[in-house]
Design goal:
Blueprint (H helix, E strand, L loop, with lengths): L1 H8 L4 H5 L51 E5 L5 H10 L4 E6 L2 H13 L5 E5 L12 E7 L8 H11 E15 L4 H4 L2 H5 L8 H11 L2 E11 L3 H4 L5 H9 L3 E10 L9
Parallel strand pairs: 1-2, 1-4, 2-3, 4-5
Antiparallel strand pairs: 5-7, 6-7
Helix pairs in contact: 5-8
Amino acid sequence: MVKEKYGEIANQSKQQNENSCCGVGGCCSGVDYTIFNENYTNLDGYVADADLGLGCGIPTEFALIKKGDTVIDLGSGAGNDCFVARALVGEKGKIIGIDFTTEMIEKARINAEKLNFNNVEFRFGDIEKIPVTANKADVVISNCVLNLVPDKSKAFSEIYRVLKPEGHFSISDVVIQGELPENLAKAAEMYAGCVSGAIQKNKYLEIIQNTGFKNIQVVKDKLITVPDEILLKYLTTNELADFKKSNISIFSITVYAEKSKCNCKNC
């Protein structure tokens, strides 16, 4: 379902995606709700054709990317974060974008070819089985994607595997505190829309720690308010009132963490 939805999104404009919930057409179409995404337009390397308005942060902002680095972007979409990262690594660096949607890969490759970028590569693949050799990346980035991955422990294990010793990641994602109402949690469009696939914030950070990462920091933490018009598609008026009175919260966070000097997770 997620693959199908994001295949459709690849063929939509940024404006169309901003008129929906995290780009998912039909979820809240017709109203300009830029709920999650950040403004990239002033960043070096920004490519308008690659910006589909799908992110929930700017992971490169905290990624400490240096000239000559190899950077892997998980869920690279049309290439937005990849092209911003390229401006940071320079001509001698390498960017590898991974996405499991054929339409997104095709769009990203077209964007790279237009700009004659020969050090930006896009690969078809699954984040639970990243198509990259071990100890390859200096930095891994991802933007509002891991909440869509069913096995988050496996995903972070793969991130650990592909990072070089002392490499690090900067990941922007959606997490929650409290339990979502059942009708909201089961809504397919809200899953593809980056809400109901999100897990508890403390559980998210626990998975990262259990994977073996060190120096884990939440470097950005933003409360997300989902408009009533969206919530009323899944909740009754009374359920919405209860939801707003509860301590349930949805957050966009950016997390930074480092791999140890060796490949042993216990170091």
